[in-house]
Amino acid sequence: MGEGVQPVRIPIPVHGLRQAEAMLPTGNWALLSPWADYAGKRWPMRCWAGLAAALQERGFDVALLGPPASKGLEVVEWPTSVVDLRGRDSATTWPALLTRASLVVSVDTGCLHMADALGIPVVGLYSVAHPSEYAPFWQRSQCVHSTRMQDLGIDQVVVMVDGIGRLNLRLDPQ
């Protein structure tokens, strides 16, 4: 960008809002998106379950997002009342589901970048790709990185979540 030029958020049309509202009624939703096509980008499911519990302790309602293939990830016991929407969203409802969120935590995938573009606070989890190159455009500092995803600690992610609460990052791109 040239000197003095500032990026500008533009509205992103979102369809399927009524369906998304039916899937995620009013709440303080933290959406967790554990799926990545490349296995090296995946955080262990036991870590996602631990994060879900920590988010619930902080007053979030927690839901899981992902394509049908994400249902095949390792089986773990989830904290009570985690809503599992994996395989139930579609190209129509996926962005609309993101708009229901107060927070999105995802590995470096389209979900993370779309939530960032929609102005939803995000925490990005990175391993093989480095956030210095691949972090979300608007929330570049909201990422944690480890050379191996399994070495990324739940506490590191929770620190980022707690920081978002202090920063009150919710942005309305409209």
Features:
30% helix; Rossmann fold; 6-stranded parallel β-sheet; disordered C terminus; 174 residues; single chain; alpha/beta
Provide a compact summary of the structure.
The chain is an alpha/beta fold and 174 residues long. 30% of the residues lie in helices and 15% in strands. Helix 1 packs across helix 3 (93-99).
Strand ordering within the main sheet: 3-2-1-4-5-6
What Rg, in angstroms, do the CA atoms define?
Answer: 15 Å
- Summed over residues and divided by their number, the pLDDT gives a mean of 87
Distance between the termini: 22 Å
**Proportion of residues in extended strands:** 5-15%
| CATH architecture type | 3-Layer(aba) Sandwich
How many helices? The count is 6
Secondary-structure element order, as H and E?
HEHEEHEHEHEH
Helix content: 25-40%
Number of strands: 6
CATH C-level category? Alpha Beta
Supply the helix-strand structural class: alpha/beta
Which regions contain 5 or more consecutive residues with pLDDT less than 50? 167-174
Q: Which shape, going by the Cα principal axes?
A: globular
Largest pleated sheet: 6 strands, parallel
CATH superfamily: Glycogen Phosphorylase B
